[in-house]
Write a structure and sequence with these properties.
By secondary structure, the chain is mostly helical. 63% of the residues lie in helices and 2% in strands.
Length: 162
């Protein structure tokens, strides 16, 4: 959408029918997905894979996050939140260090808060067994690089509390 400036103030955006139809289509799809996630939470099978994920989440965080995503689709709430989000975007534009630092902190917090409890990453069980039994990693993993041996063997042995 284009805007024209007159006397230092932004005029109302010009209406673009194609952009309006695209925005409406996007809003309808997001509203449909949000409604499907709520409805499919109670389906006991996995046929709606990825739409019924809330059935595996504790109710308080699951429904809270769902409600926030549903509220974001209410037009007048979106218009009220827009200035704050634009200010946040401008702050990130002015300082790349702030933006990268914020994303790095968020990624670190997620990695810290959501550890791999399934132990499904790579050949974890082989490496875990090596650290548990104090086996020589170079004999079992001749292809392992020094950092790999440090992270999965030496550091694991240092952190062992048993």
């Amino acid at each position: 959408m284009t805007t024209s400036r007159s006397r230092g103030r932004a005029a109302a955006p010009l209406s673009d029918p194609a952009a309006d139809r695209a925005a409406l289509a996007l809003w309808l799809v997001l509203a449909l997905i949000t409604a499907a996630r709520a409805a499919l939470t109670f389906v006991p099978t996995m046929w709606a894979w990825s739409l019924n994920l809330m059935r595996f989440v504790a109710p308080a965080p699951g429904w809270t996050l769902w409600a926030l995503s549903a509220l974001a689709l209410v037009p007048w709430l979106g218009r009220r939140a827009l200035p704050a989000l634009e200010a946040l975007g401008r702050a990130f534009d002015r300082s790349a260090v702030l933006a990268y630092g914020a994303w790095a902190a968020l990624a670190a917090a997620l990695a810290w808060a959501l550890p791999d409890r399934v132990r499904f990453v790579g050949d974890f069980l082989l490496r875990f067994g090596t650290a548990e039994r104090a086996l020589k990693p170079s004999a079992l993993f001749p292809q392992a690089l020094p950092l790999d041996v440090f992270l999965h063997y030496r550091l694991a042995r240092l952190c062992d509390t048993s």
